[in-house]
């Protein structure tokens, strides 16, 4: 007697996806598909590990904003995990006791992605554009191999920064942060 395997062809809903356990590396829900992020490697981890405290060192003391690494953000029918999500202080979801909430159901003010080897630049760009469509002020896409930063802003042309002395633009709320392309990628030498 042959056994048959029943396959459920109906797509998983966002609500069903959010009920599943988290994985490492994280999975994202995009257009009714579950996509696993690549495992971060050395350059990616180095840039992420240096950029988060650098941003927080400028924004947190004055309660301007806060950078979060690998934070799940669910909005606009998607659930993604930017490499770094930066939220203005007053937009950080909080519980009734004032503590930071676990669920972030809004777009970050600034999203930063770091391209990993073998990662699709198209997929990452689509995530940045989705954020911009839902209120994000700025998106950065860092390409460590090319020492290049692509800067995305709402209804503006993409800007490409590869001159080592170029000062990288930041969202208005983060204007206290000044980094050059050279500063950013010098962390790979430390």
Please give a structural write-up.
By secondary structure, the protein is α+β, with helices and mostly antiparallel strands. The protein is 23% helix and 23% strand. The chain is built from four helices and ten strands; from the N terminus they run αββαβββββαβββα. It has helices spanning 14-19, 42-59, 121-133, 181-186; strands at 27-30, 33-36, 65-69, 73-75, 78-80, 84-88, 110-114, 138-143, 148-153, 159-161. The chain has a six-stranded mixed sheet, sandwiched between helices. A two-stranded antiparallel ribbon has the order 1-2. β8 and β9 (148-153) form a beta hairpin. The longest helix has 18 residues, at 42-59. The N and C termini lie far apart (64 Å). Mean pLDDT is 92; it is low at 1-9.
Short summary of the structure?
The strands form 3 sheets. A 6-stranded mixed sheet has the order 3-6-7-8-9-10, with helices on both faces. Strands 1-2 form a two-stranded antiparallel ribbon. Strands 4-5 form a two-stranded antiparallel ribbon. The chain is built from 4 helices and 10 strands.
